[in-house]
Amino acid sequence: MDRFCALPQDTRDVYRRIPPHQHGYVAPGTERLSEEWIGEIRHTFNVSVCDCYCQHSVLAGKLPPHDEVPGFQEAVDDLGQDFKRLARLLLQAVAVGLELPVDFFLQHHKGMTEEGAVRAEGSPTTPTIQIDPAPPSSRPSSRPSSTPSSRRSSEVDANGHALHEGNESSLRLEFYPPFGAPPPAGVTRCGEHTDCGTLSILAQDSEGGLEVQTADKQWARVGHLPGALLINTGDVMSAWTCNRYAPTLQRVIVPEQPKVRARGRHAVGFLVQPDNDTLICPIERLALAAQAANGSAGLAGHCLQGPMRAELFVDSSRRRKRSFYAPHHNIASRLRETAAS
């Protein structure tokens, strides 16, 4: 990413992201994940890793060639394959933890998991969790109140929103440039936000700055452990599970120590998204449990509206609600919100 950021501005602009697509380069100051800041300074390159999506994109897989950034395409391909294999395992593990069929989430991420499972001859196959199926009489009834039928781009939901084929899971390469002096007022590296998808997988360097909000609303520093990955749950997983797995509120601050902020920071994230035409239908058993725990409809009342509409709180401090109908609409809404004005 350092070599890409060292390219002339006009060369980098060739790869600039063109909304509503995610794929492409995002220059510092053009994306704002929190309304609390007037500027967020980072270089980002989003790479759509699913062929079923890239073939429809304006930037259809456009990446810097070898003569501009040697090894960029090869590194991105290897990272994408590895992250997809890990995401497949995580989706199965979450399903097992919720006492759902092991392939419950995989069925809604086929555009990522099935394409990601195709490897060259002789390469490792995508691992799968193996469990003994429970007898029909003892297996909990955990399926959503309704599930999507066939996947067709011509489908619309009950509110008339078009559903689109494909999957927008993406690799996010980030470089936070150094600050020689303290940043101006209202400027940070990354504002407070939750991820909009199912899960996110993050690898970071040792420069620090990443913080997450704890259950008691305090910000806690995320340290660096070599080889470790940070797994965050996103808005879609929260809606699916009626906040059993709440979305992680996170930010990246500018370190106060002059020597630390004078160095750049690097991170690689993988944002796991359901297939675009998946209607997010909260799991009925969890919705009923949430309703019973709250003593009223509350959040579960929104969950039980069925697959057409799901509402969740995305900012615990301001209790601001976002509604979405399918992943494609959720992502499009987030892109509009984060475009810096």
UniProtKB/TrEMBL annotation:
Name all Fe2OG dioxygenase domain ranges. Answer: 167-274
Q: Where is this region: Disordered?
A: 115-162
Write out the GO MF terms. metal ion binding; oxidoreductase activity
Ranges of compositional bias, category Low complexity: 139-151
Q: Which InterPro entries match?
A: IPNS-like_FE2OG_OXY (IPR044861), IPNS-like_sf (IPR027443), Iron_ascorbate_oxido_reductase (IPR050231), Oxoglu/Fe-dep_dioxygenase_dom (IPR005123)
Print the keywords alphabetically.
Iron, Metal-binding, Oxidoreductase
Family affiliation? Belongs to the iron/ascorbate-dependent oxidoreductase family.
Protein name per its UniProtKB record? 2-oxoglutarate-dependent dioxygenase htyE-like isoform X2
Organism of this sequence: Thrips palmi (Melon thrips)
Task: Give the encoding gene's name.
Answer: LOC117651405
